[in-house]
């Protein structure tokens, strides 16, 4: 029962305080909203920059993978060209047989 009376008295004083100090209450609300918007904006900027850095990192990694793949293909092409060169030299050295 004392909890109900305590709550009732607290609600009455809260209502009176809100009525009497309405302008101060509105100033407090404006301040809280401004601080919340500032904090939210800073957080959004930080997350946006982090996202941009992650995308740049992904693009660099993809480019490095493509570069490595191209280097492997070049090695294979050089090896195949070397094999063709050796085969051509071998064919030049073998005498032609006339039938």
Structure summary, number of beta strands = 0
Distance between the termini: 124 Å
Q: Mean pLDDT, rounded to whole units?
A: 92
Q: Which band does the percent of strand residues land in? A: under 5%
Number of helices, counting only DSSP H or I runs of 4 residues or more: 2
* Category from helices, strands and their pairing: mainly alpha
Q: Summarize the biggest pleated sheet.
A: none
Identify the overall geometry. rod-shaped
Which residues form runs of ≥5 with pLDDT under 50? none
Computed CA radius of gyration, to the nearest angstrom:
40 Å
What order do the SSEs take from the amino end to the carboxyl end, as H and E? Answer: HH
- The share of residues in helices is over 70%
Structure characterization notes:
By secondary structure, the chain is mostly helical. It has a domain at 36-91. 92% of the residues lie in helices and 0% in strands. It has two helices and no strands. It has helices at 2-20, 22-93. The radius of gyration is 40 Å and the shape is rod-shaped. The mean pLDDT is 92.
Short description:
92% of the residues lie in helices and 0% in strands. It is mostly helical and 99 residues long.
